[in-house]
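Q: Got a minute? One more chain.
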Amino acid sequence: MRIALLSGNRLSLPVAASANVILFVLLALFQLQLAHAESRSLDQVNLASSDDTPTAVSPPKRPTEITVGAYLIGLSRVSPPSEAFPSFEVEMFVDLSWRDHRLAFASPTGQPMVFLEEEAEEKLSEIWSPDIEIQHEVEQRTTDSIELMIFPDGTVQYEESFGAVVNARLDLRRFPFDKQTFDLEIQSFVWDQNELKLIVNEQLLGMDTDFYTPEWTVTGIEALLSQRSEIRDENAFSTFTFRIHATRHGGHYLLRILMPLMFVMVLAWSLLWADPIDRVRIGFIALLTVVATHTVISRSLPRLHYPTFSDILLTICYFYAAVLVVESIWVNRVALKSTERASEIDRKMRWILPLGTSVVLVISILILWI
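A: Always. Here it is, folded:
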């Protein structure tokens, strides 16, 4: 009887273990089936939400109006005119604002959600944004600070302080007394004029009048709106242009180059009272002075297809010195036959040469400045 009981216990142990294994397998299969069902349900929810809330892939309406404000902190640098591809560097503050009803939320206090720096960049990547970029940049702009605010009614306000280097188009006809306009163009990279429209916020336009720029004075700013066609899309893009008006300080060129040249020309004019034999040698010295000055100024300019004010002035000085040399040789030959005739020529040239030069110079200035 004892032997039978022992054998019975030995037989019941494998049966119990098998039952436990079967129960564990059934439980695992049930959990796997439940997880699969939850996954399918979540996929369906995500698919439905992506169809119903296209916040990050499309503008809230067509076209979405973006108000733009810009403030010039400073014109940091303008490349020298000798560069073939001139550029300018600015420090600016830009404010963009639009309304996206999909971002509206309930707020008892009415306070906006505020995101700064990295948080602002991350949040901006999660919502729809105008994807603004600066046209004709020499290099990617450097962002100093970012602030993103989302108000309860869905209004989004984006503020950025940055520095940028942009290509410049210079008109050097009046160099070194020229005035230039530097254009910074802001445009959406993705959304054309049918989907996005830029609007100027006049209250947020301005400039820092205390900022000092070497060799330049910023005289004013203005904002322009236009439609620009790009090769990347068949439709035009709404473009905001922030135009900077600046005047070059011509004192450096006036004091160190032009005034010494004028002084040499006046001294050369005084030679008309000197002996004709000594005039030729000094006249050639004046001519060489003009050549040297022209060389210095030419190094300050690129290869232009039009004459500048400095080119016209130096050409007049060339003519002035050449006439002085030719007149001196002529008077020297006339004096061999008639001293009175030579003196009469000198008396006339003392007035004709400076007056004629002045008239040509005034006409040239009027042509360039009017």
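A: Residues 1-16, 36-55 have pLDDT under 50 and may be disordered.
Q: Perfect, thanks.
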